[in-house]
């Protein structure tokens, strides 16, 4: 699962490499608007006639991608690092499948670590019920719920949620690395 995701991550990093140099921040509204200059992106990469990439850039998913990833100051992730710093590595691995597979496995491991930050926590398996357990008559009835205790727990939860928000590791914001400009890429 993670290796397939890593392959798609590499694909989109190659497809959109240099996209940050074609973002324009328009500040004439109360809220800044981020615009992607598609013609410049396609022209600088020599892909004006590429129907596939043109359709991708005109899609709603890419518009969401630009609005989400366009701000210059936000939390960075693995995709940002790939687009900014790994472009040359991806290009060099195109003719060398073993290196490409090694890189995919490294990315898959990073994806796994992002989703499972605490590997020491073991998940317990729930045992299967024994044969004939559904026929037993000594099963105790479900206990009655203590309404006062439920209200106390709800109040505690509300008090915690209204308190100061704790910053998580993934929410650390930074300046997004721009990576190399679009003009340095040539695609076949």
UniProtKB/TrEMBL annotation:
GO biological process: regulation of Rab protein signal transduction
Domain UDENN: residue ranges: 1-76
Entry GO MF terms: guanyl-nucleotide exchange factor activity
Alphabetized InterPro entries for the sequence: dDENN_dom, DENN_Domain_GEFs, Tripartite_DENN
Gene Ontology cellular component annotations, sorted alphabetically: cytoplasmic vesicle
Protein's name in the database: MTMRD protein
Source organism: Brachypteracias leptosomus (short-legged ground-roller)
């Amino acid at each position: 699962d993670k290796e397939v995701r890593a392959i798609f991550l590499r694909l989109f990093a190659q497809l959109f490499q240099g996209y940050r140099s074609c973002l324009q921040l328009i500040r004439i509204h109360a809220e800044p608007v981020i615009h992607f200059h598609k013609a410049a992106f396609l022209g600088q990469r020599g892909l004006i006639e590429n129907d596939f990439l043109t359709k991708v850039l005109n899609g709603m998913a890419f518009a969401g991608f630009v609005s989400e990833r366009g701000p210059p100051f936000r939390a960075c992730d693995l995709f940002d690092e790939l687009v900014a710093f790994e472009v040359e590595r991806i290009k060099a691995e195109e003719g060398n499948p073993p290196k490409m597979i090694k890189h995919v496995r490294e990315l898959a491991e990073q994806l796994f670590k992002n989703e499972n930050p605490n590997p020491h926590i073991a998940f317990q398996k729930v045992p299967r019920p024994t044969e004939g357990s559904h026929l037993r008559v000594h099963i105790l009835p479900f206990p009655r719920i203590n309404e006062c205790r439920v209200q106390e727990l709800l109040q505690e939860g509300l008090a915690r949620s209204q308190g100061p928000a704790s910053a998580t590791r993934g929410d650390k914001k930074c300046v997004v690395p721009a990576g190399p400009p679009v003009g340095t890429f040539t695609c076949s």
